[in-house]
Amino acid sequence: MRQAHAEDARTEARRVVRNLLGEERPTAETLIGDVRPVLGDERTDRTLELALGAQLTRRSAELAAIAALLVGTRELGEGWWAKPRGGKLPAPDEVVRTAVAIEPWTDLTALEMLAAWISDDAADQMWGAPVAQVDLNSWQAEDRFGLPPGVKPGQRLVVHFDAGGRLDAVVARRPDEELGSNLDFQSLRYSRPAEAQWSWGVAAGLGPHRLPGESPDPYAREVPAEAVGILMTWATRHGASAEQLGERWRTVGDVVAAIERVDWMWRSGEWFGWWRGASALVDDSAYLPYRLEELAAG
Questions:
Q1: What is the pLDDT of residues 217-258, one digit of tens each?
Q2: How far apart (Å, rounded) are the C-alpha atoms in residues 77 and 123?
Q3: Is it the case that residue 1 has pLDDT exceeding 90?
Q4: Phi, psi values for residue 222, rounded to 5°
Q5: How many secondary structure helices (H) and strands (E) does the chain include?
Q6: Is 131 in contact with 148 (CB distance < 8 Å)?
Q7: Cα end-to-end distance, the chain, whole Å
Q8: Are the beta carbons of 93 and 121 closer than 8 angstroms?
Q9: Crossing angle of helices 288-297 and 225-237, rounded to 10°
């Protein structure tokens, strides 16, 4: 059942990518071909440098952020890149040059931060600036923020909950005659750059995503047989099929493709440990022996 949900998500992601980018099966090559005439050669080359600098298990996320920047630039215009954001925030072009994430986005890469900026700016252009921010980890609908002055019952206010994500809050009169608000969860929506980021990452998957200028090919690196045996045996014992795992894992590319087919995120929680081990193998991490020990102990 969970595997069916994974395929449903990919089907929806492919539909959104097709609508936004015109691609039935998104790849790094087609994305770069679409990006270059919109962002220009210099910006495109720099964003690809940033993607090349990421771990292979993060490359798909970096390319998905570039997809958001492509769609956002089409909507907001190339001038978005040169415009300072006010206060201590630099222009997006400076972020591309320095590759430094800024508070409060330091948990994101520079490309992910830029994707968040352009997703929010596109949402503001489409629906207006939000009056408040809410955390949807809590689904309480009533009175989640202070109302701005001058509102009236029945008025709909735009609220921010995620990068590029918006929903409406409806002003309501309470029994004590005070005004409050109710979140309308049916109005939840995302801007097109945010949709592009999600859909590209899901539809294209983990990879392999080879990029121009890579030598040697990082996906061609051979992986140690002992680690492969441990990970494949564990996955088989916990329900992965031979078709999902593939005949053998000889290279990093084989491992990446198998991780994508296995759909580990849609399985039980113990699969997170398997992902940690498989990603350590892909990224040639010094933590690999410890991750394999964790699997054995589990």
A1: 999 999 999 999 999 999 999 999 999 999 899 999 999 999
A2: 14
A3: no
A4: -75, 145
A5: 12, 4
A6: yes
A7: 25
A8: no
A9: 30
